[in-house]
Design a protein that fits this description.
- The chain is of the alpha/beta class.
- The protein folds into two domains: 193 residues, 3-Layer(aba) Sandwich (Rossmann fold), CATH 3.40.50; 143 residues, Glycogen Phosphorylase B (Rossmann fold).
- It has eleven helices and 13 strands.
- The strands form two sheets. A seven-stranded parallel beta sheet has the order 3-2-1-4-5-6-7, with helices on both faces. The protein has a six-stranded parallel beta sheet with strand order 10-9-8-11-12-13, sandwiched between helices.
- Strand 6, helix 4 and strand 7 form a beta-alpha-beta unit.
- The longest helix is centred in the last third of the chain and has 20 residues.
Length: 359
């Protein structure tokens, strides 16, 4: 049961196809954002709907509701007909596409989240991004998205330059680590470096493995690669000390982050970098590429390329006395972000979309 209809100020439909994914940043974004919106704005209703089966976020408030999917053959053309018709049935005020798209017909205010520009930057980074590469620029060119959200100022500036969007139409809204992630005590084990994220070409994992091998020549330290393996992910042979876990349940993430000698994120390009912030919220020391500077600020050790990465990882092993300071920096940086803040800023974008559409 939802909220009392007479008291509802705004209804927002969030397209929920990303919740059909078992893990990854898109699923985390849609889940945590919808939960935070519902908790922060109890007089509004937020409806998740998709043409694909999906699980609702855990513990949804009463004003976070499940919508419907396609009801006819025509509505199976979800972005052209189905999503718009479901929005009409639900009598929503705004439609939010959290994954690079909004309904093709501009019948009500819409907000599109543009997570990054990686689909347009290097064809080797995406083996299955053809639809996004073709669809999103058309939506921008036709002015169909009322407002655009990016997770960082870096992506905002890139979007303005590439797609020639009006600056007042694009708003940077930072994301956050889930509130349930926190530092925990961990049982003793052999030291390990950690990577968490989708295993894909953009994450630069061959360079990470190469750097770890150099460090392991002199130090007994493991490397854990945790995350969903995409079809185009680099393959690594089995070897001593290299642990490829696959996806990790959320319940195990805090211990994994908290126990790491350092979280290492050498990605070639990121729109935000949620796993990095998750690691920081668990007090992990962080070694990251400079592509993560906007999020990590002064709390990370920056390294690009095999030589720098090897030096940074070796230095972390050989100078454990520095870990306490690095952990404190991580925790302090993570406190600058919250999903409540993200929800309130996103809600302001919804209100602006309504004002603009009414003009």
């Amino acid at each position: 049961m939802g909220t009392n209809e007479g008291q509802v100020r705004m209804r927002v439909l969030l397209e929920a196809a990303s919740l059909s994914l078992s893990s990854g940043g898109l699923a985390r974004y849609t889940s945590e954002l919808s939960l935070a919106l519902a908790r922060c704005f109890s007089e509004d209703e937020f409806i998740l709907a998709s043409d694909q089966p999906f699980e609702m976020p855990p513990g949804p408030p009463v004003n976070l509701l499940r919508g419907g999917g396609p009801r006819t053959a025509a509505e199976r053309r979800w972005w052209l007909w189905g999503l718009g018709r479901e929005a009409a049935r639900q009598r929503v005020d705004v439609v939010h596409g959290p994954d690079f798209a909004v309904p093709y017909l501009s019948q009500r205010p819409s907000v599109l989240t543009l997570h990054d520009l990686s689909p347009w930057m290097d064809r080797r980074w995406h083996h299955a991004a053809r639809r996004v590469k073709q669809r999103t620029p058309i939506l921008f060119g036709l002015g169909i998205a009322t407002m655009v959200v990016t997770p960082s100022e870096t992506v905002r500036k890139q979007a303005l330059e590439r797609f020639r969007l009006p600056p007042e139409q694009v708003v940077a809204v930072p994301e956050a680590a889930p509130p349930w992630l926190a530092r925990v005590e961990t049982p003793p084990r052999r030291p390990y470096f950690l990577f968490v994220g989708t295993l894909e070409p953009r994450k630069n994992l061959p360079v990470l493995v190469e750097a770890w091998r150099e460090v392991r020549r002199d130090h007994e330290v493991d490397l854990i690669l945790a995350g969903r393996r995409r079809a185009d992910a680099p393959a690594f042979p089995e070897e001593a000390g290299l642990c490829q876990t696959g996806e990790i349940p959320d319940a195990q993430l805090a211990e994994l982050y908290s126990g790491a000698l350092a979280f290492v994120y050498p990605s070639l390009y990121e729109g935000f970098g949620l796993p990095l912030l998750e690691a920081m919220q668990c007090g992990a020391c962080v070694i990251a590429s400079r592509a993560l500077r906007e999020v990590a600020g002064d709390a990370a050790i920056y390294a690009d390329g095999s030589e720098e990465l090897t030096w940074a990882m070796r230095d972390m092993v050989e100078h454990p006395e520095r870990m306490a300071e690095q952990r404190a920096l991580s925790l302090a940086r993570a406190r600058d972000f919250s999903w409540e803040r993200t929800a309130r800023l996103t809600h302001s974008v919804y209100e602006e979309a309504r004002r603009r559409f009414a003009r």
